[in-house]
Amino acid sequence: MFDGEWIIAAWVGRSLVALAFTSAIVAGISYFSGWKDLGRKAFYTHVASVFSVIALMFILFFGHRYEFQYIWKHLNNDMPMRFVLSAFWGGQEGGFLLWMFWHNILALFVIRAADKWESMVMTVLASIEAFLSMMLLGIYFGDFQLGLDPFLLIREAPENIGLPWTGMSNYLTNLPYFADGQGLNPLLQNYWMTIHPPTLFLGFAATSIPFAYAIAGLWEKDYRGWITPALPWAFFGVGILGTGILMGGAWAYEALSFGGFWAWDPVENSSLVPWLVLVAGAHLMLINKNKKKPTAIFSTIYLTLLSFLLVLYSTFLTKSGILGDTSVHSFVDSGILPQLLAYLLTFIALAHTLLLGTKERRVYHLLSTAVALLLLFVGEYALATLLFVIIQGTAAVMAFKNELAGSEEEDSILSREFWMFVGAILIMVSAIHVTFQTSLPVFNAFLKPFSGFFTSLGENLNTNFFKALAEHNFTPSKDLDKAYHLIQVPLATLIFIVLGVTQWLKYKKTDFKKAGKSLMKSFGASVIITGIIYLSYDFRSHELPRLALLFATTFATIANATYIKYVLKGAYDKWGSPLAHVGFALTIFGAVISTAQQQFISKNQIGDISSLNEELDNNSDLLLMKGDTLQMG
């Protein structure tokens, strides 16, 4: 017995987590087997267990129970209690619980709808919850760690086992060390930390609903029926996840930890890419909902699946510790990398297996995937991952060629659906480029086992390329213009031009005379406004692509605004898409304007600051001695 320790709370909390895990599995199996009533009861039990875990965690936070490691790490006596929410989801365990909270809320709405898709959709959602619950089990099998225990007592932490104080029954009352906690980083003690993570995690949770409906559609070989119930969820996810990303940018701008509102940090990118893919997928869903014959139905399904899979990939990147050297905003390795990887690979394999239509193909795919995963478990990480990616990619190509592409009709080049598809392609190219840059640390991990082979090739062929592969030390360039803007700015320019033109087109075919006249007026007004901006700012030659982007966002804004005024007029229920396009265009317009003209006002005045760190520059950074005052510029 240990004086003052809430050991019963630890037992209750762990039991609730175990119940949540077990009931999610029972719910998934029951729904899969067609036992809907039992599935519902099991899922309601799971929801109650998760909510009880969250409630118990808050009791521990408000009670300043520092015998629990999670509380001790994220709370202290000086921190205002208004930031207790921030402290709750400041660590990985709280992040998983927040994700589960929203996921359960959305799943309850799916159950309430009680449509024909419930059993299949809830099988998928319950499976997702089982994986998330597993992340909180905190059970050790030898050196293998299964999940993170939010109710871990500080004396039970692996780094503390065996220390003399862990055997003291009065360690809580006699050791000053446990009278206070570590607390949150001051940058996290901010109102944005209170509202940004829950918004972002609600967006992440929302991507799972269209994913589950798409899986159900593949399951039933009903390639279009799932779109109608999934479409509102897709645009809900677009709106909420987009809002969460904007909140993150506002927080970064205010806290200045990113050096501005957007710095293409891997953590920023990992939330942006799923949003981009969901935007593209939702627009393709909209096309197919409004057409009698399918258009790009494979792309519609695949992008919907991919948006959720990229959320899982984002989770893997930020929570596994693999980005520890390239982003100060990701978590360090906490021992759950294998679980995160299993979570990601399981749903990738599920999605690509169901993309294959025949039983024989699915069996072959599952066996091939099992071989790849077997290599993963025996330690051949690079080979296993490469093989897994090749197998899944092959399945996607086979599905595209043989299963879902046969019944499509050609669209007119002057139709709305044609240019919506073009826009979706441009967005996907943008997402692929950002993903490639963000994933460079992952590529390094894959290359590591082959370093000896690449070293030998580099020496024999005397090429720097193979030597660089042998060193496997690739990182995104610090020059954001070269790393991102060189590709992203032209892509964004094309996307906004398409966004302005497409709104004026009709489905199937458009009489371009009337639409063309309105678009030319928008074009002319955009040229005038861009000319005024050009004369007002000192744009240099390398910034001309940004000027083109300003023109494109201006054109998209005016074209969509005039569409609202002259076509929709008082039909407020149809304002959604053009109004969203106006908002998006204005957001990017403001981003470009705010970054178009930058100058450094600080210049170092004490010694050579570059001797402290090679990334520091005397012309842009300032060394300030404690207690001293200097003019910045």
Task: Describe it.
By secondary structure, this protein is mainly alpha-helical. The protein has 22 helices and two strands. A two-stranded antiparallel sheet has the order 1-2. Strand 1 and strand 2 (144-146) form a beta hairpin. Helix 15 (416-438) packs antiparallel against helix 19 (480-502). The longest helix is centred in the N-terminal third of the chain and has 30 residues, at 191-220. The chain is globular and about 85 Å long.
N- to C-terminal distance: 62 Å
Contiguous runs where pLDDT drops below 50 for at least 5 residues: none
Specify Rg, calculated over alpha carbons.
Answer: 27 Å
Mean pLDDT: 85
The residue fraction in helices comes out at 55-70%
Oligomeric nature of the chains: single chain
Number of strands: 2
Main β-sheet description: 2 strands, antiparallel
**Alpha plus pi helix count:** 22
Strand order of the largest sheet: 1-2
Tell me the β content: under 5%
Helix-strand topology string? HHHHHHEEHHHHHHHHHHHHHHHH
Shape: globular
Structural class: mainly alpha
